[in-house]
Design a protein that fits this description.
This is Baseplate protein J-like domain-containing protein. This protein is 22% helix and 34% strand. It is built from eight helices and 28 strands. It has helices at 16-30, 42-66, 76-85, 304-317, 324-332, 365-375, 409-423, 437-445, and strands at residues 2-4, 7-9, 97-105, 112-114, 119-123, 129-134, 138-140, 148-149, 153-163, 165-174, 182-184, 196-201, 204-210, 223-228, 234-238, 258-265, 277-281, 288-291, 295-296, 337-346, 349-356, 384-388, 391-408, 435-436, 450-459, 471-472, 478-482, 489-496. Strand 12 (196-201) and strand 13 (204-210) form a beta hairpin. The longest helix has 25 residues, at 42-66. The radius of gyration is 31 Å and the shape is globular.
Amino acid sequence: MSEVRGLPIDYTNLGYEALRESMLDIARQTLPEWTDHSENDLGVLLIELFAYASDITLYYQSRIASQLFPSTSDEPESLVQLLRLLGFELRSAVPATVELSVAVDAGLALPFTIPAGTAVQALTSTAERVQFETTRATTLTDAVLGPVLEGNLRWFLPVSVVEGRTVTAEVLGVSDGSANQLYRLGEGPVIAGSIVVTVTGPGGATEWREVRTLATAAPVQRCFMVQRDADGAVSLLFGDGLNGAIPPRGGSGLDQVVVSATYRVGGGILGNVPPGTPFTSSVSELRAITAPAGGTGGTEAESIDAARTLAPRLYRAQDRAVTADDYVELALRTPGVGKARAVALNWNDVLLYVAPAGRVEQPPELLRRDLLAAFESSRMATSVLRVLGPDPADIYLSATVRAEPYYLQTDVQDAVTEAAAALIAFDTVDFGQPIYLSRLYDALQSLPQVASLTVTQFSRTEDGAVDADGVIELEPFELARAGYPEIIRLVIEGGVAR
């Protein structure tokens, strides 16, 4: 609030009507001889024109101001550019990893090598094929294969595969020798860390590597950085000769300098296949393939809302793992990590409890390796980091539910089971988070299918009753999960039986 010649001005009145009335009020007090304020007056017309122009100007100024803060920005591309100023790039979809068990004929000539990059496919419950590729070459010898089993097969475990498909030598364009060249990849979603660029000219081919930022790149360093747009498209930005080398300029015809890229596409929760999922492969020697433990770690691409929340927290950490919160924030940026909790045993010994995205189980070896590598440049040189998995806390629930008379009992069971499962779902709970009986009652009693209910079991043991104080306390390194596949054992009374 301010004053002009003793008149208060409210700067929050930004609309046309408010501006028009404010200017007329000023005119009435500063120009008392002007008495005709009707719409026919030329002075009123001028005021309305000024109010209209000011309304438009203030609208665009307000829009610009709102895009300057992550919490108020509502334009996805503006938010991406703003977060980029903080050194934050949207995280792409993360592929799931699976440890496969493979079978070969007992009479197969050994040793037999499964090459790195071998493609295998899983068939999901929706009849959709999901491709995986082996992460490294695996050699099968007589010493590592199991005994001869049914079907004259010998089994080997594990063969590590990661979800996704490799795009090989995609031509991005021809270098013109200019600074800050930008090329967009043709397919997606692109898996982070998988991009390798080859620049081919008259002098031969050179390999260029991805860096997190060009700001610290040397002038002759053959590198590029990855930029992800709000729609998931990926572009590669090259240097300007000061921060990162420039792909050289070629001539015409055969003397052109061609920029090409090899990368992997895929990622997402589709790769989190359930245990026992069968796989197929074009390698005829692999007679049978299965995933005993299923897939873990697959997550969808980072949403704009998640980035809006996480980016300021990471900016405070500044890529330095000092406090326990720093370890948690930086761990959550590692692809495949769903939950994290850090515990400092002393000044230089840190335990990092990690659950892979989507499941309460031990992180796979690949995820442990990626975490330790990610913290090499962030933790203090004298600190010791140990990556551990969560301790599952099984939650057992039972209830007697009286259904509304006009609902099918099967529909009531489905609704109650879904509501109960949501209370202890992976995305809902965190390490050490207690489970409250009152919230279970609230969630179930609010369902339109439920007339009343009585919870008969709420405990951490399969034969337990209702916890006395209505709270299941968890240790800091524990994560809640359902104690059995049904999530909740129900007795449905009333309703319509099918």
